[in-house]
Input
Amino acid sequence: MSDDLRELYQEVILEHGKNPRNFYASEDATNEARGNNPLCGDQLVIYLKLDDDGRVANASFLGKGCAISMASASMMTEIVKGRTRNEAESIFEAFHGICTGEEAGHKLSDDLEKLQVLSGVSAFPTRVKCATLPWHTMVAALHGKDEISTE
Amino acid sequence: MTSQDATDVVPSYDVDAVRSDFPILSTTMHDKPLVFLDSAASAQKPRQVIDAVSSAYESEYANVHRGLYKISETATANYEGTRETIRKYINAERTSEIIFTRNATESINLVAYSFGREFLEEGDEVVITELEHHANIVPWQILRDEKGVVLRVAPVNDDGELIMSDFEEILGPNTKLVTVSHMSNVMGTVLPVEELIQRAHAVGAKVLLHGCQSVTHIPVDVQALGCDFYVFSGHKLYGPSGIGVLYGREELLDSMPPFMGGGDMISSVTFAKSTWANLPHKFEAGTPAIVQAIGLGAAIDYVTDLGLEAIGAHEAELLNYATQKLSSFDGLKIIGTAPNKASVLSFTLDFAHPHDIATIIDRAGVAVRAGHHCAQPLMDRMDVPATVRASIGLYNNRSDIDALAAALADVQELFG
Ligand SMILES: Cc1ncc(COP(=O)(O)O)c(C=O)c1O
Output
């Protein structure tokens, strides 16, 4: 089996994929958005609870998808909790960079380092969207949009 | 099939020889020999088609139906020659009943826009099935929203077979069009089209049959079947992309208004009024896909030389082999288990998502399709988000299936 496959499907990803964190519909979400990848049919819903000063007090998700999208969504809900809107968006930018390989060699700040395990997708151009769909959806939710599609 | 049994009357051909006709089959993918199991999405092209296309460009290219010079005459003769090849292939009565389009999708849209707008009214019913491709759903939804026709969906059972009693119940005096796939692109189910057509005609409905998948495996005689329309795409029949076919019975096509206006489809034009060309040109506005049509002619010649019966028998044997081989996999579920199926094997693994499976086996050189296969309503019906689909073409062999099984073991190693 090729090395880039082992790089892509690291233990952590498989584990998050099998046992996603924060995998439920939040009843008290203030913002929620549905993400679709029409190409492969992946769908997920991101639930955010923003507190009065615009911080993400809680984040959860539900959906169906591949190991990459499930793991990415699971890790994202953990990471954005407690962040401000702007912080959440700039984490996405950095994350997007490592997924597309545009920021190869660039290291994420220490508290975001665990996202680095998803950088293996940069060797699989057709799978980058799987990793970024939950994030696009989260940003849409932050902006009060209720639906986005990636293709 | 390489049986030496003298009583074996199943026609056969030399698969190794056939494989050497397809240049791409001797290439590699990720440094592994290419194992191509995605012919249901689009088939590979034999040397004979590639040569027909390049020689059409190299020595006989000009616009058709226009030039008063030798190479335009030759190009026109070759282009029109394909119409005759197609007529014979599906046993249509006349070449005027063979309309060139870009693909099956355009053929269906042509019928929806031309026949649908002219002859269907509010309350009229169009019947499809639960296993249809989006290409046979969306055009009718557009027509529904525009004209108020009613879209009725005949269900399938858990094996992926059409439930005949439900289909019959749906038919009635309001049914004006029954539009169904001859064969499911997801599950391989072959529909009992003779019976469907009889039932539909019995209530006075017209029938549009999709040959997209079946045209490469199952001989079709449109006159014997009695279907009113028949559509397919050239690219799945080992021909070029960009060329498709609509067959329609002449009196129907004659009664239908043009789909697009422009050059080639007119008889005369003044600013006050234009009149339409005769069939088939009435439906072929603008410069057509000349070379693609010529390539399709070469593809049909290729398939005819091998013989559809021999192709069907070879693929059936391989489908059997694949079904047996994959069935022994722990956690593997085959989606589509109709007794009457052809050439398509869809499955899921309970420990890995279809996209992950496709990515992993791609690295082993194995090309399959994973996803909803443009049949989302069917995915909902079969209660799966997506499937992996291995589809078999005339050039596949047992080694291809063995490579697929070996690659699935990689998935098991990572995910199992
Ligand atoms: C059953 C069926 N209908 C319609 C289509 C659409 O074909 P095309 O994209 O060539 O128009 C396909 C191919 O994907 C198909 O398998």
Observations:
- The pocket of pyridoxal-5'-phosphate is lined by residues B 103-105, 133, 135-136, 181, 185, 210, 212-213, 233, 374 (CB under 6 Å).
- The longest helix of chain A spans residues 85-100.
- The CA atoms of residues 2 and 8 of chain A lie 10 Å apart.
